[in-house]
Design a protein that fits this description.
four-stranded antiparallel beta sheet
């Protein structure tokens, strides 16, 4: 059987020392016969992160600056059994340091993982969607706190969202000033009576608690879908930016670190004549 492999390509920036007077800015000081540097010289070769003899999909990655390494997560589809969530630690030099299972269940699928790093507690939050009943009738969001060197028995998977609707495509950002993660995802009503919408939940980094209750964030529209969310954090302003689409255009919303203020609500980012999707 042909195996799909997960690859990880490292991009290294070249550091150039400029001569006094800034002559390099206009090309002075370069040897007359010097050839332009190839873009390929800034890239490593492809690194095989996982070559398990099964199909592997949807990798996501976070950087750990304390230990100078990356954590790559993905889901594996087995020929027999359910999909599971796996991870590998990758050094800055591109070496696979270790790999492990984040979550698996013998009859219930897990998929669409995402990851963010918390430098205060020196660990990651990995989140994914989980087939709660094993028959596709109810997909929820689950998470697990993973220490930098790998999982421990004392930190097991926990539910982040168990709404009756389907939850899809979670994304995470770490808020340094508040020492919390913000997990966002989209909710799909199986019956189609409610337009698909975005939800979010704060997760305390120190203990996995939920300081804001069942749901801290809801982004919806009466007549349009809100889908494909992503999120990032601005430490200088202690703000999150959540972006998403409606199938045609891109939108966003700015939120304070505790989600207590949204700076005027939803705003448009891209509304060009063609369709803009998947921010």
């Amino acid at each position: 059987m042909f195996a799909l492999r997960v690859f990880f390509v490292f991009l290294f920036a070249a550091c150039v020392m400029l001569a006094a007077g800034g002559a390099a800015a206009n090309g002075q000081g370069r040897a007359p016969d010097a050839a332009p540097t190839s873009v390929d010289s800034h890239l490593s070769g492809e690194i095989v992160v996982s070559a398990v003899d099964n199909e592997e999909y949807l990798p996501a990655v976070a950087y750990n600056w304390k230990h100078h390494e990356y954590l790559v997560v993905w889901h594996t589809k087995w020929t027999v059994g359910s999909r599971d969530i796996r991870a590998a630690r990758i050094s800055e030099q591109g070496q696979v340091l270790s790999s492990f299972v984040v979550y698996e269940h013998n009859s219930r699928d897990s998929a669409q993982p995402t990851v963010a790093y918390d430098p205060v507690n020196d660990r990651y939050l990995v989140a994914w969607v989980y087939d709660a009943f094993g028959n596709g009738s109810d997909w929820d969001v689950y998470g697990r706190l993973i220490p930098w060197e790998g999982p421990v028995a004392g930190l097991q998977a926990f539910p982040i969202c168990t709404f009756a609707s389907h939850q899809w495509n979670p994304r995470i950002a770490y808020g340094r000033a508040v020492e919390e993660f913000l997990v966002v995802w989209m909710n799909e009503d199986q019956a189609g009576f409610v337009k698909t919408y975005i939800s979010g939940r704060r997760v305390t980094a120190a203990n996995g608690a939920f300081p804001g209750g069942a749901s801290d964030l809801t982004v919806s529209h009466a007549t349009e879908n809100r889908i494909s969310a992503d999120v990032t954090y601005n430490l200088a302003r202690n703000e999150y930016l959540v972006v998403y689409e409606n199938g045609v255009d891109i939108f966003g919303i700015r939120l304070t670190g505790n989600l207590g203020h949204n700076f005027g609500g939803e705003f448009g980012i891209a509304g060009w004549p063609g369709a803009e999707t998947h921010p």
